């Protein structure tokens, strides 16, 4: 079976210039380039080159995650955090950053859940029958 990472360019993937695909990251990359010290209006050619590089990396990472799913006989239909960790295991910096982002995502989800349950409890407590009388007027 041919290696899908090697033939990304041959299939007209992310590395073949525009290749008939919509550039997904160019606007964001222009802003990031300026934020990291480039000119206020960076060259569109530079942004397009970076877009190609980012797209190629995302494709290769996705394919590596799919390979990890195959190797581990994953029953899931989509790659998850386990496959991401396996795909990045040879790059300690990227793995550490991915771990940090996954931890933050879990924290955000816990906080959202906490606030949503507090909101439901608060609504239930305040939506009781109202008689218009002040407490203690009985």
UniProtKB/TrEMBL annotation:
Q: Which GO terms describe its molecular function?
A: protein heterodimerization activity; translation initiation factor activity
**GO CC term (a single one):** nucleus
UniProt-listed InterPro entries: Histone-fold, TFIID_TAF13
Biological processes annotated in GO: transcription by RNA polymerase II
Domain of life (superkingdom):
Eukaryota
UniProt subcellular location: Nucleus
Alphabetical UniProt keywords:
Initiation factor, Nucleus, Protein biosynthesis, Transcription, Transcription regulation
- Which Pfam families does this UniProt record tie to the protein? TFIID-18kDa
* PANTHER family cross-referenced by the UniProt entry: TRANSCRIPTION INITIATION FACTOR TFIID SUBUNIT 13 (PTHR11380:SF5), TRANSCRIPTION INITIATION FACTOR TFIID/SUPT3-RELATED (PTHR11380)
- Family per similarity comment: Belongs to the TAF13 family.
Q: What is this protein identified as? A: Transcription initiation factor TFIID subunit 13
Q: Please tell me the species this chain comes from.
A: Piptocephalis cylindrospora
């Amino acid at each position: 079976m041919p290696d899908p990472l090697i033939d990304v360019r041959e299939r007209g993937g992310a590395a073949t210039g525009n290749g008939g695909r919509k550039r997904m990251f160019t606007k964001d990359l222009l802003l990031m380039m300026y934020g990291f010290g480039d000119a206020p209006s960076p060259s569109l050619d530079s942004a397009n080159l970076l877009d190609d590089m980012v797209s190629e990396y995302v494709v290769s990472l996705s394919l590596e995650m799919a390979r990890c799913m195959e190797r581990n006989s994953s029953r899931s239909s989509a790659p998850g955090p386990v496959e991401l960790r396996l795909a990045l295991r040879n790059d300690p910096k990227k793995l550490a950053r991915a771990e940090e982002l996954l931890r933050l995502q879990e924290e955000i989800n816990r906080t959202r859940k906490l606030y949503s349950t507090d909101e439901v409890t608060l609504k239930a407590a305040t939506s009781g029958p109202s008689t218009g009388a002040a407490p203690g007027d009985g």
